[in-house]
Design a protein that fits this description.
The chain is α/β, with parallel strands linked by helices.
Length: about 280
Amino acid sequence: MPAFSIITVCRDHADGLGRTHAGLAVQSFRDFEWLVQDGASRDGTVALLSALRNPRPDWRSAPDAGPFDAMNRAMARAAGGYLLFLNAGDSLAAPDTLAVLAGAVAGMPPPDLLYGDAWEETPAGWRRKRARSHRLAWYGLVTHHPAIVYRRAALAGLTYPTTWRIAADYAFTLEALRRARAVHRLGVPLCRVEAPGLSHREAALGRAEQARIRREILGLPRAAVAAVGAVQSGTQVLRRHCPGLYARLRFRGGNAPAQPDLPVVEGARQGEVEAGAAVKEP
């Protein structure tokens, strides 16, 4: 059983998938599998998946009902002790990220959930976004989704609820936290998050779904839900109209170190697909 299952979902984002692969290719800790669930891409992603090596992805390509449906499909194939979800375009923070995580999960009892900071792509460069405490999960996802690592054994029967279009990762993580007996917060960045993500592009829908989750799952009173929504709306206004002030309040430290170079993949560049490299879903 590998220590980690890295799960990547993608659709028509071959360039981003290459960046995700580059971050995995330089990891010093190699006991992981890379599962890719592609949503029937038509932009060369399938050719790239067939040509990638070190790590070579275990991939499937088929139409899906969105990114959370794709995550569920990949999660059903996972064999690793811990799950980490990196969308195409996202990557691990540094070459030693998996080594750091391996050291963090080696204790007894093993943590059921770990999380850390994230490098977020902004117009001013990559800035470090500090995670909130998991005890503040009622406010929202405590960090970017790719900066959360879940112990697979603690997720038995749990899937992303596809009734939520934007906030399914929030509902999923709330349930994972409810089940968790040990949660570790790491004081280091775990990922780089490509911007803008779906939650940023459809922020209003995301806030509406989170409000329903607070009422229906957490059971918060309507007044508290409304107050959280007002604060989040104000934060979005600040971010849009006063990005410098938002950055001073929300980010810490300087820019991230340089990313690894993308590998040259001749087969993908020429649009070749290697027979037998993967199994497509019907």
